[in-house]
Amino acid sequence: MIPLSPLAAAWTRSKPPLLRFLDNCLNEFSAESSGSVADYIPELSKADPAYFGISLATLDGHVYEVGDSRVPFTIQSMSKPFVFALALDLLGAGRVESAIGVEPSGDPFNSIRLNSENHPFNPMVNAGAIACTGLIYDSKGTEAFEQIRLALGRFAGRDLAVDEAVYASESQTGDRNRAIGYLLKTNAVISDNVAAVLDVYFRQCAVLVTARDIAVMAATLANRGVNPVTGEQVLSAYAISRTLSVMTSSGMYDYAGEWIYRIGIPAKSGVGGGILAALPARLGLGSYSPKLDRHGNSVRGIKVCEALSAHYDLPMLNRSDDARNAVIADYDIGKSPSRRVRRPQEREILAAHEQEVRVIELVGTLSLSAVDYVSRRLAGRSRPQIVVFDLHRVTSTTRAGARLIAEVFEELAALNVTVVLSGVRRASREWDSLREWTAELKNVRDFYLLDTAIEWAEDQIVYRYGGSIDFHETTELAEQPLLKGLGADELA
Questions:
Q1: Does residue 348 share a domain with residue 303?
Q2: N or C: which terminus of the chain has fewer CB atoms within 10 Å of its end residue's CB?
Q3: Which helix (DSSP H) or strand (DSSP E) does residue 392 occupy?
């Protein structure tokens, strides 16, 4: 084995910038001593206030960890967004939305109050969360908790257990939640079996996680429901997007407005000391530190989120994206023909009609704005007969982008323009998204290689203006481009 140079050795030992940033946060905020450990659930009061762990999960499945990131603690209210998303998928949006609102309450998380329609304000406060659990219990009965536990585990990418001591402690001291439960029953939000619903809810809150777990869970929310570590589509993108919306407005209780103003990332806290933050299409963050502020949020966890958002300018409403960057190349086949060797007659036909095949190479994310720009760019020149879209540099496709590109393809079909796609991986999410909206279109063909797509388009032009191609016809040596200019003696 060749020894590494000192510079190379130093490089391999160096920490990635994000990991160094998390280390700096750990070192700086460990000195923060304000706040107090939750004591209204006796078992939670036993947590070591010195614990401090941070984890960040990227959407390609890499997980950074510092401090006490593997120390288990109970998920508590951080379970609420996941159970809400599960209810949306299991029961349908209509059923869930008819029982639970989506408006911020401005009240503490355990407020015993309903909205003007006698429904919980939103699923992030206790009343809404208990109602969510109750809806699942109505559907699944005694299997409800196992459904919830398994779903939480799929978000985390591993099997999750229950802290039985915390469960027992919550159950023994949960009279306020019982009051909420009976208020919901009185208003027909949940069924008669309040005790059974609350038992599921107490167990749900006592599921054990780590900072690493909740970072992966948050990244799964940020990744439209796909766990970036396991690759599993845990719940539908629809349920996830609705969940992130409610987290944005109500995830941090009566601190939600301040949170979105200062930090700008959908988040959820738990009185066990955890905070998860999910920045859509970017990352998931999990932190654990038991000392809470007056709103019930982890003091150190908030500081980590503030620092991350400020340092990397992450607020989700502060986004800039130049749609023009989506097009990396735009040309006709005269500028870049296929590698296939053509006969003189074919070359003449293609030279005369080169503008009838237009190739547009795309890169990055096919978003609504990117596809809109491409459509206007297409319309800015004379209409071709064939348009080749090369997608092999496309990293993702938004639902809006896929729908708009299907509408562009429909318009091209109405104008008798053939669409050819290249670089599409059949097993990719991008292909699934495109196929959903373009499956009924008859003017769309696809090839894996761009050169193959261009060759096919050339064949159509040659056939249209010169008749069918005899692929088995022999070609004289003198017609070969590499031998052009050689005399008969040199070719003999």
A1: no
A2: N
A3: strand 386-397
pLDDT tier for residue 475 given thresholds of 50, 70 and 90: low
CATH classification at residue 228: 3.40.710.10
For 223-257, give one letter per residue: b (16+ CB within 10 A) or e.
bbbbbbbbeebbbeeebbbbbbebbbbbbbbbbbe
Please state, in angstroms and rounded to a whole number, the distance separating the CA atoms of residues 424 and 449: 9
Can you give the pTM of this predicted structure?
A: 0.78
Q: Which of 185, 198, 175 is nearest to 114 (CA)?
A: 185
Say how many C-beta atoms besides its own lie within 10 A of residue 346's C-beta: 18
From residue 448, alpha-carbon distances to 396, 451, 454 in Å are 17, 9, 11
**Cα 91 from Cα 239, distance rounded (Å):** 11
The residue segments making up the domain with residue 393 are 323-481
Instruction: Report CA-CA distances (Å) from 162 to 129, 158, 194, 207.
Output: 18, 13, 21, 4
* Radius of gyration of the chain from its Cα atoms, rounded to whole angstroms: 29
**Cβ-based neighbour number of residue 174 at 10 Å:** 20
Question: Are residues 44 and 137 located together in one domain of the fold?
Answer: yes
From the centroid of its chain, how far is CA 220? 6
Structure tokens at 284: 């998931």
Q: In what order do the strands lie in the sheet with 418-422?
A: 327-332, 357-366, 386-397, 418-422, 444-447
**Amino acid sitting at position 298:** S
Highest mean pLDDT among 179-183, 219-223, 477-481, 482-486: 219-223
Number of domains in the chain: 2
* pLDDT band of 472, cuts 50, 70, 90: low
* pLDDT band with cut points at 50, 70 and 90 for residue 89: very high
- Alpha-carbon distance of 330 to 6, in angstroms, equals 45
